[in-house]
Specification:
Layout (H helix, E strand, L loop, with lengths): L1 H45 L4 H13 L5 H21 L3 H4 L12 E3 L1 H12 L4 E5 L7 H8 L4 E5 L5 H11 L5 E4 L4 H10 L3 E5 L9 E4 L2 E4 L3 H9 L3 E9 L3 E6 L15 H18 L13
Parallel strand pairs: 1-9, 2-5, 2-8, 3-4, 3-5
Antiparallel strand pairs: 6-7, 8-9
C-alpha cells in the first residue's frame, strides 16, 4: 500500500513538473516585460485571498507600528507585486542580465562604480569571502552578479518540496550562479570546503532559523541562522552584504557593501551571536529603506 501511494505521488509530481515546464515555456514566450507584469497582477489580486496575506499584514504592523493602515497596506501590496515579478523572472534571467561594465547605467542592470570596483576586487584579491543577502527585489541577482563578474562562488539554496519543480528550478539556475549547494546536513561542510579552496560563498540569511541565536530584527526578537558567522569565525575572511533593488521599468540596481567589521570576543575571535546580529542589522536597514521589496509573507517572528 505504501509503495502504491509513493508511486501515485511520484506520478502526480511528474505531472506537476510538466505543468511547471509548460508555464515556464509560456512565460518565456511572453518575454521579460509582459511575463513579470502578468505575474505581479496575479499576486496583487490573489495574494490577499491567502493565509499568507495575514502573515504579511501582521509582520508589517509589528515592524512599522508608527505607520498608518494605508501605508502598511501599500507596503503589502508592493510586496505581493514584487513576489509575482520574481516568480516570473526566473525564466528570463539571461535576458534581464545585460550589465555592461563599460556603460553601467545603460541597461536593465545598473551598478555604481564603487560596486563594480568591489566585485573586481573580490575576483582579483585571491582571498575567500562570505557574502550575505536577503529576500529583497529579485534575490537571485546577487549570485548571478558574482558569477558574471568571474567570481568563483558556492551559493546555498533551498530545494523546493516537489522534486519535479526542484529539477526545473535547478535547470534554470545551474549555469548562471556558480556552484549550487542544496540546504541540508552536508551544506555547512560544502561551504567550508569552498572557503578552504579560496572561493566565495553566498547565502540568504533573513529567514527564521529556530536553532539559531535570538537577535533583534525590525524591533522584535527573532531567531537567526548563525552559519555565516560561524564560518567567518573559523576562516576569519572578509564579509560583505549584497542586494538588488528594483527600479521602475523592469530595471535593477546592484549594491555590494564594503567589508563589514564584525564584533569580536575577548580572544579576538569573531563573536558568532554578535556577528549574526550585525549582518541582520544591515538587512534591517535595507528593509526599512525599501519595505515593499521584502518578502513579508514568511513567518519570521515565531
Amino acid at each position: 500500500m505504501l509503495r502504491f501511494k509513493y508511486r501515485l505521488w511520484l506520478f502526480a509530481d511528474r505531472l506537476f513538473g510538466l505543468l511547471v515546464r509548460a508555464v515556464f515555456a509560456l512565460l518565456r514566450l511572453l518575454g521579460p516585460d509582459s511575463g513579470p507584469r502578468i505575474g505581479a497582477w496575479i499576486t496583487r489580486n490573489l495574494g490577499p485571498l491567502t493565509s499568507a496575506n495575514r502573515i504579511g499584514r501582521d509582520n508589517i504592523a509589528g515592524a512599522f507600528p508608527e505607520k498608518s493602515e494605508a501605508e502598511r497596506a501599500a507596503i503589502l501590496t508592493e510586496a505581493w507585486d514584487n513576489l509575482g515579478r520574481v516568480a516570473c523572472e526566473y525564466v528570463h534571467m539571461d535576458r534581464i542580465w545585460d550589465f555592461d561594465p563599460a556603460n553601467p547605467e545603460a541597461g536593465r542592470i545598473t551598478a555604481s562604480p564603487e560596486t563594480v570596483a568591489l566585485y573586481e576586487r573580490l575576483r582579483e584579491d585571491g582571498k575567500p569571502a562570505i557574502v550575505f543577502s536577503a529576500h529583497l527585489a529579485n534575490w537571485e541577482l546577487p549570485a548571478i552578479a558574482a558569477a558574471k563578474h568571474g567570481i568563483e562562488s558556492a551559493v546555498l539554496y533551498r530545494t523546493p518540496n516537489s522534486p519535479a519543480v526542484a529539477k526545473e528550478i535547478l535547470r534554470l539556475r545551474q549555469d548562471s550562479m556558480g556552484t549550487l549547494v542544496a540546504a541540508g546536513m552536508s551544506a555547512p561542510f560544502k561551504l567550508a570546503r569552498a572557503l578552504e579552496r579560496g572561493k566565495h560563498i553566498g547565502m540568504l540569511v533573513d529567514q527564521r532559523f529556530g536553532r539559531g541565536p535570538r537577535i533583534d530584527f525590525l524591533g522584535r526578537p527573532a531567531f537567526a541562522n548563525p552559519l555565516l558567522a560561524q564560518l567567518a569565525r573559523r576562516f576569519d575572511c572578509p564579509v560583505h552584504g549584497a542586494r538588488a533593488i528594483r527600479l521602475p521599468g523592469g530595471r535593477f540596481r546592484l549594491d555590494l557593501t564594503e567589508e563589514i567589521a564584525l564584533p569580536r570576543d575577548a580572544e579576538g575571535l569573531i563573536d558568532i551571536e554578535a556577528a549574526t546580529q550585525a549582518m541582520n542589522s544591515v538587512i534591517e536597514g535595507w528593509v526599512r529603506e525599501y519595505p515593499g521589496q521584502w518578502l513579508w509573507m514568511h513567518r519570521r517572528w515565531r
